[in-house]
Amino acid sequence: MRLFGALIIAALLSASPAQAGFSEGYKAYIDGDFETALEELRPLAEKGRPMSQGILGFMYA
Fold it and tell me: Is there a contact between 49 and 21 (Cβ–Cβ < 8 Å)?
């Protein structure tokens, strides 16, 4: 059970940098800073993150 808890914590901590990139990219998109939004969201979209892909789709539409 302790191993399972440690794995859950490790998974949550490893997701934080990706979430930070998404948050920064989304904020940049909302603020109209499309260059920064593209820089932050493109790597996430290339990894298959659907929210990042959607925002990039709106940027290119």
Answer: no
Instruction: Provide mean pLDDT across the span 7-11.
Output: 59
pLDDT of residue 20: 72
Number of domains in the chain: 1
SS3 of 1, please?
A: coil
pLDDT at position 21 = 86
Joined together, the tokens standing for residue 48 give: 């298959």
Residue 41: closest CA among 8, 58, 1: 58
In a domain, 23, yes or no: yes
Q: Are 20 and 41 in contact (CB under 8 A)?
A: no
pTM to 2 decimal places: 0.68
10 within a domain of the structure (yes/no): no
pLDDT of residue 61: 85
Q: Is residue 3 part of a domain?
A: no
